[in-house]
């Protein structure tokens, strides 16, 4: 009975969606081909394993037996036996540990597209939190893996997910900048309009026949002012008619929620709600179709 701790050279370019081919080699150390011949008597049937055996990270898909010769310049040819294993890695653990949290962080970053563009603390804090969480996930995966010089499949997925989260932060930076520019333009237009239509008291009196001066005490006149009567009547009609729009607003509040959200958000947010999820779904489709 022999207990062996063997080593297998693995390629992690498709990790954790990889299938590894490992082999166990048996060879005589002292006797060459002239002294000892090694072969499998019944081929693959010579190998028998327990059906209930299992590994922590791999499924044993198949194993096969083969033989060959190895040449050493000092001693000659030696017979060598091979046991080849095809090992497929368990995916479920890595889906729960890496892929699923990354998906949630990307979808959480899309919530900022539905928040009011003027809520700067809410959107900035949400973006920074998702970026830091993605960095933590990537660091944890890299720490538990062997340090290799090539890119793994999980690195591709996490880095692209990180890019989506980062772009959501950049998207709000663009929205905030464009919103500031629009507000400045509107303020300039309002300033020009107010300067164009500003009138003094004499010009206003020429329009409606009433002298609009706050310094004059209108209570000194013994007779009622027709201008004041017109203003009171107008205010009473406005008060009586104000109840009807309020009731309509209360009734149509639920129907106007979507409209209010659209009005309070920039056009970039509107397009981002469609573009970001669509591109991410296409990326997942190609990713899982390529590696599985």
Automatic annotation (TrEMBL):
GO molecular function, a single term: transmembrane signaling receptor activity
Superkingdom to which the source organism belongs: Eukaryota
Transmembrane segments: 91-114, 126-145, 157-179, 274-291
Keywords in alphabetical order: Cell membrane, Chloride, Chloride channel, Disulfide bond, Glycoprotein, Ion channel, Ion transport, Membrane, Postsynaptic cell membrane, Signal, Synapse, Transmembrane, Transmembrane helix, Transport
Compartment(s): Postsynaptic cell membrane
Topology with respect to the bilayer: Multi-pass membrane protein
Catalytic activity, as annotated: chloride(in) = chloride(out)
Coiled-coil region list: none
Primary location: membrane
InterPro entries in alphabetical order: GABAA/Glycine_rcpt, Neur_chan_lig-bd, Neur_chan_lig-bd_sf, Neur_channel, Neuro-gated_channel_TM_sf, Neuro_actylchol_rec, Neurotrans-gated_channel_TM, Neurotransmitter_ion_chnl_CS
Neurotransmitter-gated ion-channel transmembrane domain residues: 99-188
Domain Neurotransmitter-gated ion-channel ligand-binding stretches: 1-90
SUPFAM superfamilies, per the entry: Neurotransmitter-gated ion-channel transmembrane pore (SSF90112), Nicotinic receptor ligand binding domain-like (SSF63712)
Any one cellular-component term (Gene Ontology): postsynaptic membrane
Record-linked Gene3D superfamilies: Neurotransmitter-gated ion-channel ligand-binding domain (2.70.170.10), Neurotransmitter-gated ion-channel transmembrane domain (1.20.58.390)
Protein name: GBRR3 protein
Organism of this sequence: Oxylabes madagascariensis (white-throated Oxylabes)
């Amino acid at each position: 009975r022999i207990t062996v701790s063997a080593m297998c050279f693995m390629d992690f370019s498709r990790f954790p969606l990889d299938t590894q081919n490992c082999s166990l080699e048996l060879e005589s150390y002292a006797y060459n081909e002239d002294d000892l011949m090694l072969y499998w008597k019944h081929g693959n049937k010579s190998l028998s394993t327990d059906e209930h055996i299992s590994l922590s990270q791999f499924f044993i898909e198949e194993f096969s037996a083969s033989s060959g010769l190895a040449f050493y310049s000092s001693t000659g040819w030696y017979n060598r036996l091979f046991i080849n294993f095809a090992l497929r890695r368990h995916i479920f653990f890595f889906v729960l540990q890496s892929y699923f949290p990354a998906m949630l962080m990307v979808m959480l970053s899309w919530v900022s597209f539905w928040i009011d563009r003027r809520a700067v603390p809410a959107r900035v804090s949400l973006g920074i939190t998702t970026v830091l969480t993605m960095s933590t996930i990537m660091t944890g995966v890299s720490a538990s893996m062997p340090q290799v010089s090539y890119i793994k499949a999980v690195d591709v997925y996490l880095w692209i997910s990180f890019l989506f989260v980062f772009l959501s932060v950049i998207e709000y930076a663009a929205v905030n900048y464009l919103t500031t520019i629009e507000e400045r333009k509107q303020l300039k237009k309002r300033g020009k309009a107010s300067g164009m239509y500003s009138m003094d008291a004499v010009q206003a009196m020429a329009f409606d026949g009433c002298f609009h001066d706050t310094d004059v005490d209108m209570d000194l006149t013994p007779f009622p002012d027709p201008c004041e009567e017109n203003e009171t009547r107008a205010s009473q009609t406005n008060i009586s008619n104000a109840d009807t729009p309020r009731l309509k607003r209360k009734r149509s509040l639920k129907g106007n929620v979507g409209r209010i959200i659209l009005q309070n958000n920039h056009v970039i947010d509107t397009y981002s709600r469609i573009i970001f999820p669509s591109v991410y779904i296409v990326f997942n489709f190609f990713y899982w179709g390529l590696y599985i």
